[in-house]
Fold this sequence. Notes:
Blueprint: H1 12-19, H2 25-45, H3 50-67, H4 80-99, H5 102-105, H6 114-123, H7 130-155, H8 158-169, H9 174-181, H10 185-210
Amino acid sequence: xxxxxxxxxxxxxxxxxxxxxxxxxxxxxxxxxxxxxxxxxxxxxxxxxxxxxxxxxxxxxxxxxxxxxxxxxxxxxxxxxxxxxxxxxxxxxxxxxxxxxxxxxxxxxxxxxxxxxxxxxxxxxxxxxxxxxxxxxxxxxxxxxxxxxxxxxxxxxxxxxxxxxxxxxxxxxxxxxxxxxxxxxxxxxxxxxxxxxxxxxxxxxxxxxxx
Length: 211
């Protein structure tokens, strides 16, 4: 079975246009559902606390609301992914600035060694540097895969997806999956092959639409 990709989610160009209408609550909810975890995870891995990362999510969404009316979706001029990263990057930097000097913030106690404090500081990615770009790309791909899996799952027969999930994601033996769902081992293999291809196709489509 092949999915009609056009039915899965609206293009990012369409969603961005919807965001220009502040009264479009459904559009903003969709945007939040797609991107909040991406922004949150990057902020956390960028060295922020849970509370700080939540603030970054809220402040980034506010920044998007402020600037999206003037944003023109033209991949030839710049990707939406890069634009959103910049929105998040400045909010992460703002949170780090609120802490004050890193040396003071990481000075846990007089018993802490200098080498330990230095290692902790150095472990925090530079929000202005390439390390945050790498985090963003990694989380973007993770978020993309989750979104693709979710889209495919919603379009499949529940049992068929469970066969795939138990075999591929949970690591059950094919014989165990077949016995649990009353299907042949060949059907388990076929479900894995077809659904894996559907997910790959959806990832490729989303990558194109979301950049």
